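ARCHIVE CARD
Drawer: 12
Card no.: 0347
Subject: one protein chain, sequence and derived structure
Cross-reference: see card 0346
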Amino acid sequence: MIAATTVSAQYGPGGQYGPGGFGGGSDSGDNDFGSSFGGGRGGFSSESRHKIIVAHGVLAALAFVLFFPVGSILIRLGSFRGVWIVHGIFQLFAYVVYIAAFGLGVWMINNIPVNMLDNYHPIIGIIVFVFLFFQPILGFVHHLKFKKYSRRTIWSYGHLWLGRILITLGMINGGLGLLLASDAPAFTGFAPSQGQIIAYGVIAGIMWLLWVSASIYGERKRTISSRAAVNKEVDAGSPARPYDDGKELYAYGGSYSCSDPHIANPITGSELMLKVTDASSEPSTVACYNTKTFTL
């Protein structure tokens, strides 16, 4: 009971790794308690706990330090046909890997005689797990909307920023998990060395920088491509689009009459769809087709 009370103090509110504090260190009394306890509520041995916690950590690290970032980098730098499909399959695979890691973590918590849910690591892990469920849904809707409108929508930005937040949280949580394991080896069955913790931090940090760099490069590349497409239209003799920032929408409706000598092939019909630039809050005339002028 003394050891259990000590660990609860470390990981409970206000403890070293609980919601009220943060720190490191180990308690030598934990190991004695772990041996006398004989395997926790589930009755599994220290060797079993060691294998389970290592598998949990390895799978979660593979998901957030390797698979998710690589899949994100792929969609930013890849330019081959069907790259979004490869991206989706890759990220779904990473999601399955994390589901396995999460399941092992839940099993560990249920077989440890201390309430580990007072610690940041499992709390963040649960939050990440819940929100990851929405990522493939947002990604699929983003693809459908982008295919229809040829521009990003709110679904796109939701998918992008939720993914960025979750990958970052996942990497940070891996470090918190190593600190947790090092401070309670009797319950986790695994005590990582200081070198292992530092190695994880270095590798995760490098991967995060590569991933962020690829994201910045991808956004920059997208902006340049959009501007090049606009300049090509202008050089070809098409009327320039004011306030063009690469975003597009589809506009319907119109009134008034006019004529525009730049329009080579007028379109007739009661409803006309125009692909125009979405950048200005000020109404502006963007095109004329025989007796219709479309205004935003």
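Annotation on reverse: The chain has nine helices and four strands. The longest strand covers residues 285-289.
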